[in-house]
Amino acid sequence: MDSEQTSWPSPPSDFPAAVKAVKAKLRAQIGDVDKLFKEIEDYIRIEVEDIKATKARGEEVWPVVQFSDIENGTVPQATIDLIHRRGCAIIRGQFPQEVATGWDEALLEYVDSNDFSNKYRGPGDNFFGTVEANTPEIYPIYWSPSQMEARQHPNTAKVQSFLNSQWKNESHGVTWFDPDQDCMYPDRIRRRPPGTDSSGLGDHTDSGSVERWLTPAYQQVFSSLYNGDFASFDPWDAAYRTEVDEYPSSTMCSVFRSFQGWLAMSEMKNDQGVLHVVPIPAAMAYILIRPLLSDVPEDSLCGAEQGYVLGVNEKWHPLLMEAVSSIPDVVPGDSVWWHSDVVHGVAPVKNQQGWGNVIYIPAAPMCAKNAKYSADVADRFREGLSPADFPAEHYEVEWANRFHESDLNEIGARALGIKRKAMAEEKSASASL
Hints:
Elements lengths: L14 H16 L2 H24 L7 E3 H6 L4 H10 L1 E5 L4 H17 L2 H4 L18 E2 L5 H7 L2 H11 L5 E2 L2 E2 L2 E5 L6 E4 L8 E5 L5 H4 L1 H6 L1 H4 L32 E6 L10 E4 L4 H7 L20 E2 L6 H4 L3 E2 L8 E5 L3 E4 L9 E5 L4 E2 L1 H16 L26 H6 L4 H13 L1
Parallel strand pairs: 1-2
Antiparallel strand pairs: 2-13, 3-7, 4-5, 6-16, 7-15, 8-11, 8-14, 9-13, 9-15, 10-12, 10-14
């Protein structure tokens, strides 16, 4: 993240004191914290028991949507209702399998043709943890033709629009975002080979950690909870979410993502170290109110720390852990999505069977906050630089076969805030040379 990109809020210099102060403030606003938490806990327990019963019947916990139904506007209402209840979805057949596997093969050719394995210097800013420098699973690659073609494809735009529309984007007299126009949030790829042993990734949420308690903007997002009114809490209301900023760190996200997501580039079985979630969007209420209970140290937010994702664990959140649910089996061309508040992690695996390859593509609807980041992304895209939210590794600057501005279609250009007229003039100037 480049400090000159924008003005970010500063974390408190005395974190324990700030935590004590905000907890006192929130308790005063709420009144009976124990009563509020019991109300939340009772609701969560009903959801947990339903998830357990669904598994016991041999049914999928994750809602499954056929891309053809999104395309034709025929997604059953029962499926839409289940997406709202679970906060996640699998989209079957977003792309034909042969298209996705073709992109996967092209990605491998892209990195190999540029000698990436020999040039790879290891994770920047300790972003990926302990990974062998010459065998990454998460590749800091952003501008391959495969990734860009997937991002700007009409099928992706249709899925993003469908998912964005699940949110309430108008409230308090404000239109918070345009559900039918996504910005481009370039992320990396994962290539996990057969035979891999992986310890997985602990359960957590992204897009704000201690900020969810400490910053006025996030206090406004969750004002119903912080005023003791769980009944009015709607995790699908976008109100003020486009107004928040996170403290600078290597885990921050500069945009509002309605859903995080990825596109499968290979077949993956649900027991092979894949994504799992706590499929309860309202679980955020449990997470936020839990530190206010009397059994938590006054200077603690149940383990939340500035500069790290918001961890969720058995010690502080045992009820949530009972609901952890893996994705179903997926094939190339399927996509996987989860609400930006949803707790998620990656299961461990020993001797993985088959490849585990994905392109990370979220839904990030256009709003002023996201448009600002997209403008910066457009500049970095032109130069082949790493996006601002990621370590400044910049591998692709000299890669001639990366995706270029002249390759953008209308969807890609709009997502980056690039005017088609300017593109046409650039093409004309290039042709005259």
